[in-house]
Amino acid sequence: MFANIARVLAQSSKKCLPLVRSKHSLPDLPYDFNALEPVISAEIMQVHHQKHHATYVNNLNVAEEKLFEAKQRGSVSDQIALTSALKFNGGGHINHSIFWTILCKDGTSEPEGELAEAIKRDFGSYQRMVDLLVATSTGIQGSGWGWLGYNKQLNRLDIVACANQDPLQATTGLHPLFGIDVWEHAYYLQYKNARPDYVKSIFKIANWRKVEELFGKARHD
Amino acid sequence: GHLNHSIFWHNLSPYGGGEPSGALAELIKRDFGSFENFNTYMATTTVAIQGSGWGWLGYNKTTKSLNIAACGNQDPLEPTTGLVPLLGIDVWEHAYYIQYKNVRADYVKNIWNIVNWKDVSQRF
Predict the structure, then answer these.
(1) Which of A100, A116, B9, B106 is deepest in the core (most CB within 10 A)?
(2) pLDDT given for residue A221 in this prediction
(3) B65: which strand partners?
């Protein structure tokens, strides 16, 4: 009852600060922890989702709360001091939220429709795109993500690497379509230092139907 | 990577732990207030590294003082910051993940039990 009252008050007054500030929450995985085996072990999925992604969500909420308070106090310096935590934890939340959805049990057939045409046009073939994404992702120094992204201004697909949890769109302007987490926590328990094996295998569990949907939204929204 | 790990293996010892003595201990007390303060500060800085990197106790030859620094990825301390490396803590996930998983803080807390202060003092 209390939450409903607060919500009505918040919605009815745009001039006042919202009484209830919504917090980010950990999205559920669209499948069980073991769904992506043998490519990604259940153990990795559990720790990756329940510990790593959950921590980004919690720390994002903390950073946003501090940012709100710093703004209320009128402290520009404190707001700026929080930008690193926002980028890191916000990026971590964004990246992982996308990641769970572009993977699925046993993968799907290769890209179709508009996405397939764009891949052929911009890379020559699906296999060439995969080779480039594998090389880019494997070659990242330290922690980061390899991305297939869409450049809306140029109407072109691109492959880039982002460091740490830097979110693709906020950092480069590209719309994220398919990303590969190459932080060691994403593969180490199973593949140890053999990052190339993990990166090559991930295409066996790629959910191209979801990627086609993301491409469609990026193109037409 | 080669520089960092070559130092790291010597910074650690199965007979390590405890606290430093002599000139290094005195400088730690002068620059950090106490060994505990130094310990806390180095641990906090190291655990907070975003992504892969190393936490370092380094010596500033210009100011003749001790410094704590964080380096990203495999950036080597001296070429990057000018500080002489004394003690480094690798916080790339590969350094602890199989045993500690995501709990980097426990790994950094426990590593003090195997710090080879003889080696660190020698470097100092």
Answers:
(1) A100
(2) 85
(3) B60
Complex ipTM more than 0.90, yes or no: yes
Q: Which residues of A touch B93 (CB under 8 A)?
A: 143, 183-185, 188
| Range(s) of the domain holding residue B6 | 1-122
Which of B51, B52, B101 is the closest to A51 by Cβ?
Answer: B101
Q: Which of B51, B97, B98 lies nearest to residue A142, judging by beta carbons?
A: B51
Residue in A122, A112, A135, A118 with CA at minimum distance from that of residue A182: A135
DSSP for residue B14 = T
Cis-peptide into A30, omega within 30 deg: no
Rounded CA gap, A189 and B93, in Å?
A: 10
Contacts of B92 in chain A (CB under 8 A): 142, 184
pLDDT digits (tens, 9 = 90+) for A19-60: 557 899 999 999 999 999 999 999 999 999 999 999 999 999
Cα B111 to Cα A141, B17, B87, B96: the distances in Å are 25, 8, 11, 10
Task: Tell me the chain B residues in contact with residue A183 when contact means C-beta distances shorter than 8 Å.
Answer: 51, 93
The residues of B whose Cβ lies within 8 A of any Cβ of A are: 50-53, 72-74, 92-94, 97-98, 101-102
The CATH class of A42-102 is mainly alpha
Establish, for the pair of chains A and B, how many residue pairs have beta carbons separated by less than 8 Å: 47
> pTM of the entire structure?
0.92
pLDDT under 70: residue ranges of chain A: 1-20
Cβ atoms of A218 and A175 within 8 Å: the answer is: yes
Q: Cβ distance A149 to A182 under 8 Å? A: no
Query: Do B51 and A184 make contact, defined as CB atoms within 8 angstroms?
Result: no
Interface test with B, best of A52, A188, A191, A193 (most B CBs within 10 A): A188
Q: Which residues of A lie inside 8 Å of B (Cβ-Cβ)?
A: 47, 51-52, 55, 84, 88, 141-144, 163-165, 183-185, 188-189, 192-193
Task: Confirm or reject CATH 3.30.460.10 for domain A113-220, answering yes or no.
Answer: no
Residue A35 gets which letter from DSSP? T
